[in-house]
Design goal:
This protein has 2 domains: 32 residues; 202 residues, Immunoglobulin-like, CATH 2.60.40.420. 13% of the residues lie in helices and 45% in strands. Bound molecules: copper (II) ion. Copper (II) ion (CU) binds next to loops. Copper (II) ion binds next to loops.
Length: 238
Amino acid sequence: MQRVLRWFFIAGVLALSLPFLAGISPEVNAQSSGSIVGEVKYNGTPPAPKVIKVNKDNQACGNEKTSEELVVGANKGIQWAVVSVVGAKGPAPKPAQKPTLDQKGCHFQPHVLLAPVGVGIDILNSDGILHNIHTFSKANPSFNKAQPKFKKVITEKFDKPEVVKIRCDAHSWMSGWVVVQEHPFYAVSDANGSFKIDNVPPGKHKLELWHETLGKVAKDVEVKAGAPTKVTFELTKK
Ligand SMILES: [Cu+2]
């Protein structure tokens, strides 16, 4: 009995000390790295969102869709812009949950999905109709798969970093993006145009913003340990 107790004690001490030995304590990480917090703003008067008439499967899809190729909020924040630290090194994150791309109400949700390299993404069909997912990739093999209503999940993975356009061959208005990176230092802007990149190594970095219709913008930043670096991107239609 005593031997068993001693074994439990040793195992307990080992379990508690392992994260410190491996240097993965979150506190250590937060102090030795910084974060980049920012906003993506539309400069000027944003164009009215495009409205697309739906000519098929109206019961599931509705009668019209608002295009998400340029989403500008009330405060002029631009959604769906991806900001990345260029040349960053770091392991691709292992997400707790698989990145998920849903086809719901005949549009891709989210419109821009972030996915680490080599991690499968679940492509769901929440609509009771046929969708056909089609990717337009170059670095990764492209795929084109029918997803009938009974096929609720297809899992696909991307092994190379790439911005991949996706469409549905059954519904011409459905379009979205999967942005695949090999490091964790990137983020997508939310409905207010805000984004945050955590655990960035201190030092000078180049940031690159990508937006599907407004293009690419680069910016230099300096990240300090334990503090957020604030960045604002102002974009306009060319
Ligand atoms: Cu579809």
